[in-house]
Design goal:
Blueprint: H1 3-6, E1 9-13, E2 34-35, E3 38-39, H2 40-49, E4 55-60, H3 64-73, E5 80-85, H4 92-99, H5 101-104, E6 109-113, E7 116-118, H6 122-132, E8 136-141, E9 147-151, E10 157-162, E11 168-170, E12 180-190, H7 206-213, E13 219-223, E14 229-231, H8 235-244
Parallel strand pairs: 1-4, 1-6, 4-5, 8-13
Antiparallel strand pairs: 2-3, 6-12, 7-14, 8-12, 9-10, 9-12, 10-11
Helix pairs in contact: 4-7
Length: 246
C-alpha cells in the first residue's frame, strides 16, 4: 500500500499552555514560536505535506485567536485546516483527541504534538501501521529521558515507567524477558476505531488512554532512533532546533 495515499489527514496538538516556554508563552502560543523564521506549526504542516497529508485539524486553547489568525492569513501554508476549539477548557492530549472525533472519523490519521520537530520517515511509519493494523502505532526512540513506554519483544505496548520516581504501570504481562523501554516521540498513527474504545471523560492524557487500552488492544511501537528529533519544550531547545533544522 502506498503510504502517501494511505493517510491524508492529521491532527496537530497545539492547545497547550507552554509553561516551560516562558517568556514567549506569556504573550503567544508555543505553536507560533519561530525556528529559523518559521513557526513550529508551519514546520509541522509542511512536514506532513511531504507525505501527502494536506488536511489538518488543529486544536487551540492558549492564545487561540493568534493560531487561528496565522492559519487564516497564511491559508494553512497550503493545507486545508479545521480548528478544534478548546478555548473554554484545556483537555490535554487525550481529551483533545476525543473532542475532535467528528473531524477525524472514517480513516486512519496522524496525531502529533506541535512542539516536536523531526526528519523521521513518516511514510515508513504509516506503512508499518498498515502492515500490522494495530489500534495505534507510536513513534519511539532509544534516547534517554525520564519517562518511557514499555514494550514486549513484539513491539507491543505493555506499560510505562518513570525512572526518576520509580513509578511503573504495567498494562499487560511480558511473556518472556524484561520489557524494553523506549522514549515516545509525540507522533502517532491511529485507527479511528479507537474512538469506540475511549471511556475516559474530560481532561486526560494519551498515556492514560493507551495504558487503559493495552490489556485488550494492540498498541505498537515504531522505532526511528536513527532520525533527527527534538522536543522544543524550552527556549534553549528552540536554539538547538535552529541548528538542526534549516
Amino acid at each position: 500500500m502506498n503510504a502517501t495515499t494511505s493517510v491524508n489527514r492529521a491532527m496537530i496538538l497545539a492547545a497547550g499552555l507552554g509553561t516551560r516556554f516562558k517568556p514567549w508563552t506569556d504573550r503567544h502560543p508555543k505553536a507560533l514560536a519561530p525556528v529559523n523564521g518559521k513557526s513550529l506549526l508551519q514546520r509541522n504542516i509542511e512536514y506532513l505535506q511531504r507525505y501527502g497529508i494536506r488536511e489538518v485539524v488543529v486544536n487551540v486553547h492558549h492564545f487561540a485567536g493568534q493560531i487561528v489568525e496565522a492559519l487564516t492569513v497564511n491559508k494553512g501554508w497550503g493545507s486545508r485546516f479545521i480548528i478544534s476549539d478548546e478555548s473554554s477548557e484545556v483537555l490535554e492530549t487525550g481529551g483533545g483527541l476525543k473532542k475532535a472525533r467528528p473531524l477525524l472519523e472514517g480513516a486512519p490519521f496522524v496525531l502529533m504534538n506541535v512542539d516536536i520537530l523531526t526528519d523521521m520517515d513518516l511514510g515508513a511509519m504509516i506503512d508499518a501501521h498498515f502492515g500490522y493494523r494495530p489500534l495505534a502505532t507510536l513513534a519511539v526512540t532509544d534516547r534517554s529521558t525520564s519517562r518511557y513506554f514499555l514494550f514486549n519483544g513484539q513491539d507491543e505496548l505493555c506499560g510505562w515507567r518513570n525512572v526518576q520516581t520509580g513509578q511503573e504501570r504495567m498494562a499487560r504481562p511480558v511473556e518472556s524477558g524484561s520489557p524494553i523501554q523506549k522514549a515516545f516521540s509525540g507522533i502517532h498513527v491511529i485507527d479511528p476505531a479507537i474512538f469506540d474504545h475511549i471511556e475516559l471523560e474530560g481532561k486526560f492524557s494519551m498515556v492514560d488512554l493507551y495504558l487503559g487500552l493495552a490489556p485488550k488492544q494492540v498498541i505498537r511501537g515504531f522505532d526511528h532512533s536513527h532520525s533527527k528529533l527534538i522536543d522544543v519544550g524550552k527556549p534553549a531547545s528552540a536554539e538547538e532546533a535552529a541548528r538542526l533544522f534549516s
